[in-house]
Amino acid sequence: MGGAIHDKKEQMNYLHNRLDMVMNVLENIDPEEAGVAEIDRLLAMLDDIETKCKQFRYDWSE
């Protein structure tokens, strides 16, 4: 994994890229074939984004 991101612009780019990844996964899920594993994967991705948002919020309040 990469190092810590402290620059606000880099943080926003990171979040943008992660959200793009979520959208890509959503667009490629076949609703006829998808199951609980796909939903769990999406939830895990969103949890990771939430964690990063909280870290970045802490950085921005300093």
From TrEMBL:
From the Swiss-Prot or TrEMBL record, give the protein name.
SE1561 family protein
